[in-house]
Amino acid sequence: MTEPRKLYVRSFGCQMNVYDAQRMTDTLAREGYVETDTAEDADLVILNTCHIREKAAEKVYSELGRLRKSQEEAGRRQMVAVAGCVAQAEGAEILKRARTVDLVVGPQSYHKLPELIAQAEARGSNRRAGIVETEFPVEDKFDFLPPPSRAAIAKRGPTAFVTVQEGCDKFCTFCVVPYTRGAEVSRPVAKILDEVIRLADGGVREVTLIGQNVNGYHGVDAGGRDVGLAELVRRVAQVPGIARVRYTTSHPRDMDDDLIAAHRDLPALMPYLHLPVQSGSNRVLAAMNRRHDRELFFAIVEKVRAARPDIAFSSDFIVGFPGETDEDFADTLDLVEKVGFAGAFSFKYSSRPGTPAASMDGQLPEDVKSARIHALQALLDRQKAAFDAACRGRRFEILLEKPGRFPGQLIGRSPYLQSVVVEAPVEAIGTLALVDVREVSTKSLSGDIVGGEFFADNVGMNRSARQSEKVEA
Ligand code: SAH
Ligand code: SF4
Ligand code: F3S
């Protein structure tokens, strides 16, 4: 038998890249590739890249430099592929800048990987003839990407991402996503449900439905009816074995009443909503082409809170957008004060080639951006710390996901995506535990299990065992 070929995939960027990496791995598993944890060890290295900010996009080149060095030191030739959003945005430029690269493949062509790799192999050591595939093909890649094996699902643990929508038609003036991922496409309901059923069969308990503009989801069901995200979430929550559903990332404009009602009606829909707002200034929001103002954002927050009082929000912010004044930035701080976030990501505006904002007047100097991001992050950190601190003494359902740092410990996630450390046996992984939160630190919570799917019987057994001990004594 020939040795299996080894594959190493490194992902940067958003959850969709994590999902795509799994689908590429599943596709190549059928070609005889097995995963390895180190690039040095691999016959094929795939860098799954992100183009969202300049720093993210530049990472691929430092990574390629490292690879070239390690190849030279080991005197070994590896096949190197660049996938993801930098591949889509820069295409053949990558081959010019980094000679180590054999193949550049955009996100809509992952189903073609086996044939592209075969072509690259056929070219052998003629590296000048690297292959570039960045078309948006007419066929739907999802129809050709094979599903994961049961073993692969089990290895990935009890939570999974499922892409339900890809691409974006919103064209915020700062953002590359509409160019790198293309127009919005929603997958049909039946395909998504098949995937979720398969995941649940393999032991998955929590699915996060992902899309660049996930609440813009509009798929068709088997009867040809148009189905929005709310209805999709309801159907996913009915799949036997699925205990929790999340979705990300949403746009405020697409938070319709049906989706808000789903937050009221579906206990499985977790009470933690990531809703990027970007800025608290109406002037800046208009220049960003966000299609919402701060008033709409406040109104949505209020409606969702009325529907699901225990909901918490997280968001994304950009500081230093071209033309942002001190007053505009003060409006952002004011919005944060008024809403109160349990978590957030904030970024300094990064000028991206080809986007309208890149050529706007009023580009701001780095020191202004730095001062603003520090002020914003300090406020957001305080809010997160206050939210976490208020969790002490609460009883949460935790999904136990993986072993902790010390023997006998497991790590799970709260409804609010906080890591929670508990003492429990590995057999309990994949079950829901009821936990009384005792300690809160910056990174995680910890607490005591008081019941749950795995423990109900055991806790009961212990109790009756103790009682019978007493009786015997
Ligand atoms: N589709 C999502 C998120 C897209 S990218 C949405 O609509 O919000 C994730 C985050 O990166 C964005 O929310 C934004 O905060 C940030 N981002 C995008 N482009 C950026 C840029 N040019 N500079 C800085 N941050 C950016
Ligand atoms: Fe980018 Fe705006 Fe689309 Fe989000 S909604 S992906 S920020 S263009
Ligand atoms: Fe980055 Fe592309 Fe995701 S640019 S954030 S990997 S959609």
Automatic annotation (TrEMBL):
Cofactor (UniProt): [4Fe-4S] cluster
Protein EC: 2.8.4.3
Function: Catalyzes the methylthiolation of N6-(dimethylallyl)adenosine (i(6)A), leading to the formation of 2-methylthio-N6-(dimethylallyl)adenosine (ms(2)i(6)A) at position 37 in tRNAs that read codons beginning with uridine.
GO MF term set: 4 iron, 4 sulfur cluster binding; metal ion binding; tRNA-2-methylthio-N(6)-dimethylallyladenosine(37) synthase activity
SUPFAM superfamilies: Radical SAM enzymes (SSF102114)
Name of the protein described by the UniProt record: tRNA-2-methylthio-N(6)-dimethylallyladenosine synthase
Binding site for [4Fe-4S] cluster 2: C168, C172, C175
Domain TRAM: residue ranges: 389-451
Assembly information from the UniProt record: Monomer.
Keywords: 4Fe-4S, Cytoplasm, Iron, Iron-sulfur, Metal-binding, S-adenosyl-L-methionine, Transferase, tRNA processing
Binding site for [4Fe-4S] cluster 1: C14, C50, C85
Any Pfam family the entry gives: TRAM
Family affiliation: Belongs to the methylthiotransferase family. MiaB subfamily.
Catalytic activities: N(6)-dimethylallyladenosine(37) in tRNA + (sulfur carrier)-SH + AH2 + 2 S-adenosyl-L-methionine = 2-methylsulfanyl-N(6)-dimethylallyladenosine(37) in tRNA + (sulfur carrier)-H + 5'-deoxyadenosine + L-methionine + A + S-adenosyl-L-homocysteine + 2 H(+)
Cofactor note: Binds 2 [4Fe-4S] clusters. One cluster is coordinated with 3 cysteines and an exchangeable S-adenosyl-L-methionine.
Listed SMART domains: Elp3 (SM00729)
